[in-house]
Amino acid sequence: MSPSLRQIRAFIAVARCGSFTRAALQLHLSQPALTVQIRQIESALGVKLFDRNTRAVRLTRLGRELLPKLERLQLDFEAIIADSKGLAGGHRGVVRLACLPSVAASVLPAAVKSFNKMFPHVNFHLKDVSWHRVVAMVRSDEVDFGIGDIIPTEPGLDFIEIFEDKMQVIYPARHPIDRLSNVSLRTLSQYPLVMMDSETSARSMIDAAFAAAGCQIIRACEVMYVSTAAAMVQAGLGIAILPASSPEWRAYQGLKAKPIRESAFIRPVGIIKKSGQTLPPVSAAFAESLKTKAS
Question: 88 pLDDT exceeds 70?
Answer without folding.
Answer: no
